[in-house]
C-alpha cells in the first residue's frame, strides 16, 4: 500500500535495476533478460508458446536469465519478436522450435543466432540491435515510451519508469489550475482525430459547475487498420490510469470510465489487471497519497460501432443507451455522461499527460511544429516493406515515414498515394510526399490526421475502388439518424459502384462532388461530415482514373473486375489445360497438348482463377 511519495520511491529503487538493464544504463541488474512481445499481433502468431518454451528451457538448463512479457514493439510484420538484454538483440519471426537454439547459443554460449536477426531489404545486411534498424531509428517515442520495455501486467515495472510520480507531484504540490495551465502550455491536441486543444477542453470541464463530474477515456478505436490505442492499452495501461487520475484532480472529478471495445480482449484483460493493482497499491480509491483526493476508474465495454467514436454517441453508449450522436451544444464539458460535466479524451492523448507533467510543458512543446506539438503514433500498413506501429515527431514528412521507416514499396512497384485518417481521411499523391505531417497540412491536402491510420497504396491499387471501400464502411457504420448521412452516402456509393462496373457517365463526377458537399454540410456528426473525404481527395488528385473507368471502360490498376478482360498469350501458352480445369464457367477452350487455349469473353466470370493457376504466366488482364 502506497501512502506517500517515499513508498513510491522505495518501489522504484527495487525495480530500477531491471529497467536500467533494458535501457543499458549504469546500475543494471546482472543476468540475461528476455523480453517477448505479447501484443495482439505477436500473440496471434503464437508468441505465448515462445514465451512459455523460453521459460521452460531457461529453467531446464539452469540459465541465469529471466523471461518477461511486454507490450507491442511496433514491428508487427516481423513478429513474434524477442529482445535479449544486455545487447538489445532483436530476434524476428521466432517460433517455438527456435527457442532451444536461442537458449543454447545466445544465453549459454553468448553467441548470436544470425538467421533470426532482421535483414534490411535494401542492403541485405543483418542487424543485431533493435536501435540499428531503420524502422526504429527515425522514431521518437513519447506515448509509446514504455511499450516493449515493461511488463504491462506488473505495476512495479511502471513505477520503476517513474510511473505515478506525476500523479504524486500534482496531488502533493500543484493546484488544479496549475495542472490545467501546464496542459495548455504544452500545446497537446486531441489525438483522436479533430485535434481540439486538450488544455482548453480540460479548462472547460474544470469551469463547469456541479458536484459530480466524470473523466472518460475513448478507447473505441474503429478505423480500419488502426491499432494505436489498443497497443498502448496492451503495453502500458497504467499510463492511461495515471493520466485519468491527474485529469480528475484537475477538473474536480472522482470517477472515471474507460470505454473500450469488447473485441480487444488483451487490452480489456490488462486494463482490469491494472485497475485492480492500482487499487491494491492505493493509487486508485480513497485518499490517494494520503490526500483528500478520491478517484476510481471502471470499464465500459463497447460493441464496436464506429459511430461511437463520436463523443456524444460514446457517452450515450457508456450510459447504457443507444450509441447515437446528438447535436452540440451543449458540449460534454457541460452535459456529458448521465447529464453531468464530462472530460473526454482518447487513449493516446492521456498517455502523453504523465510525461508532460514530469518533463514539463516546455519540453513537450519543443517537439513537433508550431501548431502541432509533440509526437503522433501511426499504424503504418499497406504496400510498404515494414508495417507496424510507429511514433514520430509532428512535422516529420510523409516521405520519411513511407521510405525510411516503412522501407519503401515492395517488389519494385511505384508509390501511388498514402491514405491517412481512415474513413474520414483522404488519399495524398506522390507530389506531396515531402509535406510535414501535422493537423493543418493534412487538412489542406483534403485529408486529416484522424486517430492515426496510415495506409500506403501502390500502382496496383485502384483509387476508385479505395474510395468505394471507405464510403461503404461509412455507409455501413452510419447510425441512420440524419438523412444526409444515411441517404447521401448511399447515393454516392451507388454512383461509385456504377463507375467500377463500367456503367458510369461523366455527369456522375459532378454529381459526386455536389453530393459530397451537401453531405458534409448537412450531416449531424463527424461521421457524415467527413465521409466524403476519400471521394473528394481521389477526385481531386486522380480524376484521370475516374475518367478512364467511365470513358475507356478500363481500370488502370487492373482491380475493378467488371472492367477486366482475361487474355491468353498464345506464344507463352503450353496447352497444359490447368486453366480450363480451374474455370467453373467453362469459358476456356482448347485441346491439351494441342494449340494454345483461348478464353470466351462472353462466358468469362472474371474471377481470376485461371490467372492464378497458369504455371507459365501466359494469362494477363487487358
TrEMBL record:
Residues 564-593, 595-622 form the 4Fe-4S ferredoxin-type domain. InterPro entries: 4Fe4S_Fe-S-bd (IPR017896), 4Fe4S_Fe_S_CS (IPR017900), NADH-UbQ_OxRdtase_51kDa_CS (IPR001949), Nuo51_FMN-bd (IPR011538), Nuo51_FMN-bd_sf (IPR037225), Nuop51_4Fe4S-bd (IPR019575), Nuop51_4Fe4S-bd_sf (IPR037207), Thioredoxin-like_sf (IPR036249). GO terms for molecular function: 4 iron, 4 sulfur cluster binding; FMN binding; metal ion binding; NADH dehydrogenase (ubiquinone) activity; oxidoreductase activity. Keywords: 4Fe-4S, Iron, Iron-sulfur, Metal-binding, Oxidoreductase. Its EC number is 1.6.99.5. The keyword Iron-sulfur applies. PROSITE patterns: 4FE4S_FER_1, 4FE4S_FER_2, COMPLEX1_51K_2. It is an enzyme of class 1 (oxidoreductase). The keyword Signal does not apply. Belongs to the complex I 51 kDa subunit family. This is NADH dehydrogenase (Quinone). It comes from Desulfofundulus kuznetsovii (strain DSM 6115 / VKM B-1805 / 17).
